[in-house]
Amino acid sequence: MMPTNEKIICNRQLPLVEVSGSHREMGRQMGEARREQVKHGVENARQLLTDAFEQLQLTWEGAVIQSHKYMPFAEERYPQYVEEMWGIAEGADVAYDDVAVVNAMEAVTTDALHLTKCTSMAVNQNRTVNGHVLVAHNEDWVPEDEPDAFMVHARPVDELPFLAMTYGGLLPNIGINAAGIAQCCDTVYPNDIRIGIPRTVVARAVLAAENLSQAIRHMVAPHRAAGYNHLLAHESGELYDVEVSARRFALINSEDGYIVHTNHYLDYQMTLIEDEPDELISSRVRFFRATNLVKQTLHHTQQSLQDIQRDHVNFEGSICNHLIEDDNPLDREKTITALLMDVTDHQIHAAWGNPCNNVYTTFQLNA
Fold first, then answer.
1. Biggest alpha carbon distance in the chain?
2. How does DSSP classify residue 2?
3. Which CATH architecture has domain 119-364?
């Protein structure tokens, strides 16, 4: 059913978890604070594999075996983030293998999860009323994970502080750090995937970057399993899309002070390795819709970008994504959070669930 124009405003706000210390300690603090949600996330993932067994032929035990192939690459390159996963498992009183599967889920299912409705947008200081750099992201994922979403404010002993959204036992990766670097991640579908560093680990590393070059080097780390599209914004106003696969990447600069991305490749060389592009029609339509809306406003505000995040044109493939029942468990998705990041002020305004009927709450990064 098409969403109506009548708004049902929910006042709930994402829980905030503050963590600090070593990576193991931060993971343990996240796990302890969100113990039931981590367990729920693991059970959701188990159930997903059970429901999709006919298509994937993959049991949970098989997924654990598969994750054991990927994690050694993460341990070699980014042992600190594997430590965070161990901490999450200890704090939530779940098996480390379960947390590893959740963080390698896209890899172990070889991208059968064709969830194709995330939308990311950014405008720099030349395209905003107050001269701020703004980034908007609708996180679309399986609806069962929505109750497990939360914000984390982290102060690692050996890296920059950051503020990010995550859910369940996933490593945080969509957020902003104290160097004024913001990141959104959109799933893309290359056909050159391989065993290597899971995408969530690579994306977590970006939150530690002290400059844009360092951030991009993390995105294209050697021996990565595949890649996201990383929409990258800096408080200086620099905006990039970094489209990544297992063996290739493309760097796309902003045009006229804005940039938009969804779930398909834009760079021509990257389109050559896109897996089943005909499955990504909704991503292409949504990209043009979001681009047109961004271009219509010469100088944006937080409100104008939030209005785009609430857009229902082209429903069921709209920017604001509502759950439509589907017999295929691999295709069920909705907008579980909407984030509006003020990169200049180091703030994240977050709506928990569909932004059309949930209020935005402000979270501040304090270095």
1. 53
2. P
3. 4-Layer Sandwich (3.60)
At position 3, the amino acid (one-letter code) is: P
HSE at residue 247, side-chain half, CA atoms within 13 A, is 9
Structure-block tokens of residue 302: 């937080």
The token pair at 8 is 């049902």
The owner of tokens 């341990």 is: 75
CA-nearest of 192, 191, 194 to 276 is: 191
Residue 64: strand, helix, or coil: helix
What is the reported pLDDT for 310?
98
Structural domain spans, the chain? 16-108, 119-364
Mean pLDDT of 13-35: 98
Strand partners of residue 134:
123, 342
CA-closest candidate to residue 145, choices 260, 34, 286, 270: 34
Q: What angle do CA 106, 212, 265 make, to 5 degrees?
A: 40
CA dihedral 271, 277, 282, 286 (to 10 degrees): 0
Count helices and strands in the chain by DSSP H and E runs: 12, 14
State mean pLDDT over 159-164. Answer: 98
* Secondary structure of residue 318 in the 3-state scheme: coil
Q: Is the torsion defined by CA of 85, 91, 92, 93 positive or negative?
A: positive
pLDDT, average across residues 245-264: 97
Instruction: Retrieve residue 223's tokens.
Output: 């021996």
Element (H, E) at 182: strand 181-187
Query: Residue 36 corresponds to which tokens in the numbers above?
Result: 């039931």
Rounded Cα distance between 248 and 3, Å, is 39
**Among 314, 298, 306, CA closest to 354:** 306
